[in-house]
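Continuing the series of single-chain predictions for the mutant panel. This is the parent chain; the variants come on the following pages.
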Amino acid sequence: MIIGMPDVDEIHDACDQVQAQVGRPINPTILTPEEATADSGFLTQVRASPTALLFGELPW
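Parent structure:
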């Protein structure tokens, strides 16, 4: 999951590289900060699950 306003092509290129290395599909979910703080079943589950923050700060 990517939260912010990234260059979508760069995200997909990076995911393609990882996919080639791990041999599994990598499907990014890109959300704006506003979308990331919304209430939804998906985000409720994400918030309740362990996360691995790579950089930045979580919006919740």
